[in-house]
Amino acid sequence: MFYDHQSIEKKWQNFWKENQTYKTENTTDKPKFYVLDMFPYPSGAGLHVGHPLGYIASDIYARYKRHQGFNVLHPVGYDSFGLPAEQYAIQTGTHPAITTEQNINRYEEQLRKIGFSFDWSREVRTSDASYYQWTQWIFIQLFDSWYNKTTDKAEDIKELIRHFESHGTQNLAAVQNDQLDFTAEEWKSASELDQQDILLNYRLAYRAETTVNWCPGLGTVLANDEVKDGKSERGGFPVFQKKMMQWSMRITAYSERLLQGLNSLDWPQPLKDAQEYWIGKSQGAQVAFDVEDSVEKISVFTTRPDTIFGATFMVLAPENPLVKSLTIEGQKEEVENYIEQTSKKTERDRMSDVKNVSGAFTGSYALNPFTNQEMPVYISDYVLMGYGTGAVMAVPAHDERDHRFARKFGLTIINVIENDNDIQEESFDSKDSVCVNSEFLNGLKYDDAKSLIIAEIEKRNIGHGTTNYRQRDAIFSRQRYWGEPVPVYYKEGMPYSLPISALPLELPEVEKYLPTEDGDPPLGNAKNFAWDEANQKIVSTDLINDETIFPLELSTMPGWAGSSWYFLRYMDPHNDEVFANKELTDYWGQVDLYIGGSEHATGHLLYSRFWNMFLKDRGHINQDEPFQKLINQGMILGMSAFVFRIDGTNQYVSKGLEKNYQTQKIHVDVSLLKGSSDELDIEAFKKWRYEFADAEFVLEDGKYITEREVEKMSKSKYNVVNPDDICEEYGADCLRLYEMFLGPLEQSKPWNTQGLSGVYGFLKKFYNLYYNGDDFEVAEEEPTKEEYKVLHTLIKKVSSDIENFSFNTSVSQFMIAVNELQKLKTNKRKILEPLAVLVSPYAPHIAEELWNKLGDADSIEFAPFPKFEEKYLVEDEFEYPVSFNGKMRFKLSLSAQLSIPEIQEIVLADNRTMEQVQGNNPKKVIIVPKKIINIVL
Fold first, then answer.
1. Is 439 exposed, middle or buried (0-12, 13-18, 19+ CB in 10 A)?
2. What angle do CA 136, 137, 138 make, to 5 degrees?
3. What φ, ψ does residue 405 adopt, rounded to 5°?
4. Of 93, 101, 697, 894, which one's alpha carbon is 20 to 30 angstroms from that of 923?
5. Integer Cα distance of 389 and 213 in angstroms
6. In whole angstroms, what is the distance from residue 768 CA to residue 774 CA?
7. Do 419 and 433 form a contact (C-beta atoms < 8 A)?
8. Cβ 114 vs Cβ 55: under 8 Å
9. What's the pLDDT at 446?
10. In this structure, are strands 227-228 and 231-232 parallel, antiparallel, or unpaired?
11. Residue 164 pairs with which residues in a beta bridge?
12. How remote is the C-alpha of 694 from its chain's centroid?
């Protein structure tokens, strides 16, 4: 029978859509299972075949759990705020909402074509006001909260105000920017403005001056992961370090909980390691150093206070506020020039550049509190303001970077850890040796020396033991248009949150999407974007009088805001009263399976955990963590094609002749190759882009052969394969099976379109098991033992593979089973019915079609998954090879249940054995049950 994949797939995609087959109910007696894919951003390019890999895996698992009787939540939505749509708006004037809508429609069309079992009724979009109303609501909850170290959780800011009213800062244990000290009376007598300023020091969403990655070309602040090699990832614009007033989220309050929470998660270890490193917990001491001829003190955090006797100079981060006051007149120009140079590097660049040594001397000297020796104070880009205090006591004998710095600037190097190295030539770092040249620490090992020096530091009142974290508070402002407006207005420069009743604060229309002439963010172009406090509504900016009508915040939220809680909204996506009904968040709980890329380790995955913990603290949800099990899928790699342009010409030389010329290697679209070969279609190439219209070619054997290379599949590399084309030619079921067949889910693997034909051939064989010629024909008779064995071997393998996410080996087993059943000419219902269910999670369209042909009116989706029965794999007989002195002479079929003595008795009585032994007694009979019999003569 002809396998018409196109009509079958369209038929069942329409059926699923019309019947809302995958719509999930919230009221059910079934156990729940929540399967989620990382939020897709709807780009203008649409999907290529690399994108669905994780979606296919999660869909297989979701379908499998439905077959097992679970109430499965498998939703879909779009992380639809983003810079690409805004950049397109700047270039064309097209509103980002229009572009985004078009892109989403394209994505949905493609996703439906691949047959995903999403509950489309729960679709959310972060750029819809009905969604970002609740993102804004969460922001206000953060703004109205502080972190109580005593209870180790976030609490209502009103509790903090009550504490101030009764006790001031006495006995207050709070996470804060600056250590404040005031009485209850001082609090009560403070002005409203001063009180609000004090509260900003404690709020979990707060505004403060922060060093950021500023990109003038894009007119916005960028996150570290949006910057590469000092340039923006999008557009390649220069990025500078700049101090700006920014909104931040106090994620540092949760550092320890985020660290400890990793222990309860079933995540890949490299991903957990990445978060642990990012959080960067370290224990040591904070020490204050006096500065000669200055009232300033330089405070440092060190994990090795036991080496303080070897501290010979100080290094400040160029951004450290102390730099200005400590730089003497004669050093100002050098220091300012160095600060300017450093501003062109991101923190990530500075951390990764371990070889280059640079710095500038401030002209000031600190005093080592234990040696009383002068310590020259430098600035250098290897010290970061965001870690510790933005200053280090340099111990060059025992720190590689300090050592390189000391060598470059001719600074003193003193050994304080016992070793045999020449520390003038290389540093030595160890926690196993003992202290030397360290007075009362001499002879002590690391732990004892550390404890003693911290006690002495505290006794001298120059510092204390402490725990530090590398993680910094997350910058929350973006100076761009296409994002969630921050629900804040300003009175006398102080931020106040909008009332909840004013939400959503909708994104206003603007004439242009660039910053204003005054340098304000694009929202500064809005005509109707001011807050009328008296009438509680948005009004024209022309009416701002700073008495009753006030300016609104002009920054928007970062890209990670909407994706930090979307998994909760899916539980109750249409609720207008709350972000999600607590009964439903209690029912659905954690995401049971989350699949996505490892690149989100220190971004989305960290921020989601932070917001989840915060919402639990405030009583809105019950679960500690958002994602219990997480799998990072690998990439599907593209096979790129290259042509070689001879330098300074418009001539292109074929691959085999390239070595004879000076050439430039240029990507070429893989669609310009002839069939599945590496030969370039020259005429198509000339028409591809105008600069190639007059191209000339140096051919080999009359052909232009391109170079091929496996690399990331990307539109910019012209190596993408459109899944629509694959679905058209081979079908969605073939695409799904092939992507799983390529290799283990977590590994990256190259795409090869030629491989699809083998999978397509399997589907045709599978389909025709149910047909006799052109007639659908299934027999009701009892299957044979061999047929049951094939089926239950498959059930056992597929069940185990799905549970272990080994989808590639399941596809292999399907092929083996179908080949065996074809040889057995199987057409029995008791075999073919469960076989359709087994294949269904992987190839749902063909499975639905055959299920329907088998007479089942309902969707196959909820049919019980076949149960494995061991009895069908128990061998009744085993055919033993019988060998004499290691040479096999004949085979003997025996019952698999016989004991070794029984086997020996039978084989020795066999006429063929008697012929071999010729009346002699065997020296030895070796029997391995269900394997071999060997008779030694």
1. exposed
2. 90
3. -65, -45
4. 894
5. 20
6. 9
7. yes
8. yes
9. 95
10. antiparallel
11. none
12. 45
DSSP string of 74-116, one letter each residue: -EEEE----HHHHHHHHHH---HHHHHHHHHHHHHHHHHHTT-
Residue 574 is predicted with a pLDDT of 97
Q: Which residue positions in the chain have pLDDT lower than 50?
A: none
Which are the contacts of 357, defined by CB distance < 8 A and separation ≥ 6?
380, 382, 401, 404, 405, 407, 408
> Which of 1, 104, 101, 132 is closest to 47 using CA atoms?
104
3 state SS of 495: strand
| Rounded CA separation 154/250 (Å) | 11
Residues with Cβ within 8 Å of residue 235, at least 6 apart in sequence: 87, 217, 218
- Contact assessment for residue 305 and residue 285, using Cβ atoms and an 8 Å cutoff: yes
**pLDDT at residue 225, rounded to an integer:** 66
CA atoms lying within 13 Å on the CB side of residue 586: 6
Whether the ω angle into residue 84 lies within 30 degrees of 0, i.e. cis, is: no
- pLDDT of 707: 97
Residue 230, pLDDT score: 76
Both tokens of 900, joined, read: 């070794």
Size (the chain), residues: 937
- For 645, phi then psi, to 5°, come to -95, 130
Q: Are strands 227-228 and 391-394 parallel, antiparallel or unpaired?
A: unpaired
- 52-67 vs 732-741: helix crossing angle, rounded to 10: 100
Does this model's pTM top 0.85? My answer is yes
> How many angstroms separate the CA atoms of 205 and 220, rounded?
20
Query: CA 337 to CA 332: how far, in whole Å?
Result: 8
Query: How far apart (Å, rounded) are the C-alpha atoms in residues 698 and 740?
Result: 41
Question: What residues contact 895, with CB distance under 8 A and at least 6 apart?
Answer: 876, 877
Q: Decide if 125 contacts 80 (C-beta within 8 A).
A: yes
SS3 at position 893? strand
- DSSP conformation class of 142: H
Q: 10 Å Cβ neighbour count for 757?
A: 13
DSSP 594-627: EEE-GGGTTTHHHHHHHHHHHHHHTTS---S-SB
User: For residues 452 and 937, what is the distance between their CA atoms, to the nearest angstrom?
Assistant: 79
357: left (phi over 0), alpha (psi -120 to 50) or beta: beta
8 Å CB contact between 232 and 226:
yes
Q: How many other CB atoms are there within 10 angstroms of residue 286's CB atom?
A: 19
Token readout for 909 is 């009585």
Show the tokens assigned to 311: 């501290």
Q: How confident is the model at residue 581, as a pLDDT?
A: 96
Is residue 364 classed as helix, strand or coil in its secondary structure? strand
Cα separation, 139 vs 476, in Å, equals 10
Amino acid at 722: N
State the residue for tokens 């993102």.
135
Cα gap 235→212, rounded to integer Å: 18
Say which residue the tokens 């250590």 belong to.
179
For residue 887, what are the contacts with CB-CB under 8 A and spacing of at least 6? none
Residues with Cβ within 8 Å of residue 555, at least 6 apart in sequence:
246, 247, 477, 478, 479, 486, 521, 523
Positions of E strands within 669-737: 696-698, 707-712
Residue recorded with tokens 């539109």: 715
Q: What are the C-alpha distances in Å from 554 to residues 131, 522, 534, 559? A: 20, 7, 21, 16
pLDDT tens for residues 154-207?
A: 999 999 999 999 999 999 999 999 999 999 999 999 999 999 999 999 999 999
Residue type, 440: F
3-class DSSP state of 317: coil
Output the six-digit token pair for 89.
Answer: 């708006």
How far apart CA 577 and CA 575 sit, in angstroms, is 6
Q: Which two tokens stand for residue 199?
A: 């509260």
**Which tokens in the block code for residue 386?**
């965001």
**Residues 79 and 484 sit within 8 Å (Cβ to Cβ):** no
Q: How many CB atoms lie within 10 A of CB 233?
A: 15
What are the beta bridge partners of residue 925?
Answer: 935
